[in-house]
Design a protein that fits this description.
The structure is a single chain. The protein has 132 residues and is of the alpha+beta class. The chain has three domains: 34 residues, no CATH class; 51 residues, no CATH class; 44 residues, no CATH class. The chain contains four helices and six strands. The strands form three sheets. A two-stranded antiparallel ribbon has the order 1-2. The protein has a two-stranded antiparallel sheet with strand order 3-4. A hairpin with an 8-residue loop joins strand 5 and strand 6. The two termini are 39 Å apart.
């Protein structure tokens, strides 16, 4: 966002570095991190805002020292995230039912709902897993 506000005019120096420092970023400007004050402020803000009705987000704030968001101690150098595992893939493996060869493609659930394609090797209608 700082690059966008600066229109990428300053690289990682000058105006960009000044904005980043005032916003609460520390360290080398090409790989800066949130200062302790900014990290604590963001954790407090997240705690005050509470849960947002959405799917899981995998964003985090690196915590470089113990901070207590909402009364829960955080281990130093841990990442505070919105929780859970990262989503690996939305693609579903669709396979040819033939035992003579293995041919599969990956499709979204929405496309599978419209219908599975035919095998590129034997022209059989491909099948999706039954647990969709």
């Amino acid at each position: 966002m700082i690059h966008a506000a600066d229109d990428c005019a300053s690289g990682h120096r000058g105006h960009f570095a000044e904005i980043a420092t005032r916003a609460g970023f520390d360290g080398k400007m090409t790989s800066s991190h949130a200062s302790m004050d900014l990290a604590a402020e963001l954790l407090t803000l997240a705690d005050e805002l509470g849960d947002y009705p959405h799917g899981q987000l995998m964003v985090g704030v690196p915590v470089l020292a113990p901070v207590t968001p909402g009364g829960t101690p955080v281990i130093p150098t841990a990442w505070v995230t919105t929780g859970g595992r990262a989503q690996v893939s939305r693609w579903v493996k669709v396979s040819c039912p033939s035992v003579e060869h293995t041919y599969h493609v990956r499709m979204s659930r929405g496309m599978i709902a419209l219908g599975t394609p035919r095998c590129g090797m034997c022209d059989e209608k491909m099948i999706a897993p039954s647990n969709l």
